[in-house]
Amino acid sequence: MLAKRIIPCLDIKDGRTVKGINFEGLRDAGDPVELARRYAREGADELVFLDITATKEKRKTLVDLVRRIAKELNIPFTVGGGIGSVKQIEELLHAGADKVSLNSAIVHDPELINRAADRFGSQCIVAAVDAKRTGDHWNVFIKGGSENTGKKAMPWIQEAEQRGAGEILLTSMDRDGTTDGFDLELLQQVNETVSIPVIASGGAGTIGHCIDAVKKGKADAVLAASIFHFNEIEIERLKKEFLKARIPVRLT
Questions:
Q1: Which pTM value belongs to this model?
Q2: How many Cα atoms are found within 13 Å in the side-chain-facing hemisphere of 206?
Q3: 220 an active-site residue?
């Protein structure tokens, strides 16, 4: 079994790290450069940076901030938010990102996945999916969770893989920020649908939740924000508990 990854997430608004519940009620969580430096030092496997209002505000990702954060890191760095073209992807990769996370743009223009994967390689392309339960299935939301596309999540995730995405960043909008645990049913269904790695996002509140995401949800990585930003769980402690649960992790 490959090592499972622990990934802190920096949700960025107006140059600051923020965190809300169900994509609303945002509160300040600190300076993103300082947090990035801390997480790299504490043993995070990767870092995700999401400019959560870029698409809604119809602007590009904060490239200068990406560049400043990248200088602090010695771990893989994924950047998302407001990315809508191959040119923008190239700009962010040159600024220090290792991967880009695409969401709204690829829903509107699915062939962007093909073009980006052909140009930079699938390993650089993460398809981010914000999913919310609607009856007996999950719908895909875009623009920071503000717009219901009407697309069903499973067929869309399968299409993203077929077009060349190398990874799925799967966020349960129903669980996001609640600290009530990951949506294990959603994770299980997605992992039965695709063969590429799936990052679980939305709902982490305890070490047990993270272990369940891997063991029951079959996630390849666990992404969280609040529990790390506000020092509720230390990354080193989480990794030690993973090892106790017979989940392989990378130790620094």
A1: 0.92
A2: 5
A3: no
Return d(Cα 121, Cα 153) in angstroms, integer: 24
What residue ranges define each of the domains in the chain, with the CATH number in brackets?
5-244 (3.20.20.70)
* Residue 45 among the catalytic residues: no
Amino acid making up residue 36: A
SS3 141: strand
Q: How far is CA 232 from CA 18, 181, 229, 235, 238, in A?
A: 16, 14, 8, 10, 11
Distance between CA 212 and CA 24 in Å, rounded?
26
How confident is the model over 89-144, as pLDDT tens digits?
999 999 999 999 999 999 999 999 999 999 999 999 999 999 999 999 999 999 88
Please check whether residue 182 is in contact with residue 211, taking contact to mean a CB–CB distance below 8 angstroms.
no
Residue with tokens 């890191």: 73
Phi/psi at 174 (5° precision):
-65, -30
Selected catalytic residue, list 11, 45, 51, 176: 11
Rounded to an integer, what distance in angstroms lies between the CA atom of residue 48 and that of residue 68?
Answer: 14
- Tell me if residue 15 falls in helix, strand or coil: coil
Cα–Cα distance between 35 and 43 in angstroms, integer? 12
Catalytic residue among 45, 64, 118, 130: 130
Which residues are 102's β-sheet partners? 127
